[in-house]
């Protein structure tokens, strides 16, 4: 490892606490304490970039330079990745209810198109249609979007307002329900 690399790493390691304190302060300021890890990761990345670009011959202390670089990166993160205003719970609930009605209508139409396009016997089509109808709205939407249309689970989860991990579990459960219904 060269001397520059050791210097960059020593700057980075020596100021990790500054990155943590800035991440905490931004998470509290923008009321996203539950996303502290994201803020911390952005701050650490900015700290490393500052350590790489820092030149001590300008007469500025590294701590001051790093703070300004981290503040800029954290502000970019807030602007680009987070909604400007948190939605109230009642609005979130209403939009989820409205979405479920839209999902139900779309899924009913797509389900009919999908089942009728299959090259199977009429009895198998009826059984599949009934099995899909027995799924709840989210499960039906996930199965049709992921399996039929080829969307990624994180895209479908975002549309439903749920994390990708939950979308994956719901999809797996829905596929198992379908398999049980069709046996």
Explain what the structure shows.
The chain is an all-alpha fold. The chain has nine helices and no strands. Helix 7 (137-148) packs across helix 9. The longest helix has 29 residues, at 89-117. The protein starts with a helix and ends with a helix.
Gross morphology: rod-shaped
CATH class category of the largest domain: Mainly Alpha
Low-confidence stretches: 94-106
Residue share in β-strands: under 5%
- Summed up, the domain count is 2
Q: Give the H and E element order.
A: HHHHHHHHH
The CATH architecture classification of the largest domain is: Orthogonal Bundle
What's the number of extended β-strand segments? 0
Report helical residue fraction.
over 70%
Amino- and carboxy-terminal Cα gap: 62 Å
Estimated structural class: mainly alpha
Number of helices: 9
What integer is the average pLDDT?
A: 76
CATH fold descriptor of the largest domain: Arc Repressor Mutant, subunit A
Radius of gyration: 25 Å
Summarize the main sheet: none
SSE map:
Blueprint: H1 3-14, H2 16-29, H3 36-53, H4 62-81, H5 89-117, H6 122-134, H7 137-148, H8 153-160, H9 164-182
Helix pairs in contact: 1-3, 2-3, 2-4, 3-4, 5-6, 5-7, 6-9, 7-8, 7-9, 8-9
């Amino acid at each position: 490892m060269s001397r520059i690399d050791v210097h960059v790493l020593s700057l980075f390691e020596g100021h990790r606490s500054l990155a943590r304190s800035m991440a905490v302060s931004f998470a509290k300021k923008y009321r996203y304490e539950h996303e502290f890890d994201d803020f911390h990761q952005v701050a650490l990345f900015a700290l490393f970039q500052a350590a790489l670009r820092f030149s001590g011959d300008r007469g500025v202390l590294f701590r001051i330079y790093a703070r300004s670089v981290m503040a800029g990166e954290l502000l970019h993160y807030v602007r680009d990745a987070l909604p400007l205003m948190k939605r109230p719970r009642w609005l979130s609930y209403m939009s989820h209810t409205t979405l479920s009605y839209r999902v139900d209508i779309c899924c009913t139409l797509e389900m009919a198109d999908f089942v009728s396009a299959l090259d199977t016997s009429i009895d198998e089509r009826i059984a599949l249609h009934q099995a899909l109808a027995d799924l709840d709205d989210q499960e039906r939407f996930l199965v049709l979007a992921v399996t039929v249309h080829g969307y990624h689970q994180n895209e479908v989860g975002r549309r439903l307002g749920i994390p990708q991990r939950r979308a994956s579990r719901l999809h797996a459960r829905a596929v198992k329900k379908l398999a049980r219904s069709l046996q």
